[in-house]
């Protein structure tokens, strides 16, 4: 039995940048479900996280929700008051751009848009936020220079209602900590 708005909806997109750090934080949260974009499904195993091995890392009751419908059917769980918070971490440049212009054609972008329309707080960990980003490709470290376009999109995302933008693992942890405090909840003390 799920009580009203008692769970975190944590969306993962196809970003290798800060993927490990994001999943490590997610697994410290109580009552959390993961929502994957199709790209996340591909990228997670590339970084050593097979889908079938994710489940034991999360709290009991965990659900792994995959992007298998054109109309984002699982978003209905927001209308059923299952989730109190929607997190997108890590968020690709692609997902940030779609969120900024209101495109909802993946599970994470649909979760973001519908949560906003329902007044459910969202936290987005945008990764292309500095002029120079050093990121872990599957086999090496790569230096990327996000364009003005990507940097501007992050600024525009900050202006969207019910959306807090964070730009580092430390900021993500702090934002979630504040959300837990507001909900009188706590991080998991045991790691599964
Ligand atoms: C191994 C790998 C790593 C990737 N890492 C990133 C990344 O760090 N940031 C990013 O914006 N896109 C990254 N991409 C590209 C995205 O996965 C791609 O743009 C995809 O269309 C994003 O879809 P989504 O936003 O719906 O998840 C990566 C792709 C691959 C194959």
TrEMBL record:
GO terms for molecular function: catalytic activity. Residues 7-134 form the Flavoprotein domain. It holds the Pfam family Flavoprotein. It comes from the Bacteria. This is Dihydromethanopterin reductase. It comes from Piscinibacter aquaticus. The lineage of its organism: Bacteria, Pseudomonadati, Pseudomonadota, Betaproteobacteria, Burkholderiales.
């Amino acid at each position: 039995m799920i009580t009203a708005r008692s769970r975190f909806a944590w969306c993962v997109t196809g970003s290798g940048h800060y993927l490990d750090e994001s999943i490590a934080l997610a697994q410290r949260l109580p009552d959390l479900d993961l929502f994957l974009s199709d790209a996340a499904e591909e990228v997670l195993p590339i970084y050593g996280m097979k889908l079938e091995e994710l489940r034991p890392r999360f709290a009991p009751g965990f659900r792994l929700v995959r992007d298998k419908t054109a109309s984002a059917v699982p978003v209905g769980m927001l209308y059923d008051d299952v989730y109190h918070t929607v997190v997108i971490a890590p968020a690709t440049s692609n997902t940030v751009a779609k969120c900024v212009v209101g495109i909802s054609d993946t599970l994470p972008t649909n979760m973001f848009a519908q949560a906003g329309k329902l007044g459910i707080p969202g936290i987005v960990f945008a990764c292309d936020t500095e002029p120079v980003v050093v990121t872990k490709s599957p086999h090496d470290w790569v230096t990327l220079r996000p364009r003005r376009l990507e940097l501007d999109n992050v600024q525009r995302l900050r202006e969207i209602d019910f959306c807090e933008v964070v730009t580092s693992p430390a900021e993500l942890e702090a934002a979630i900590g504040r959300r837990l405090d507001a909900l009188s909840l706590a991080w998991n003390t045991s790691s599964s």
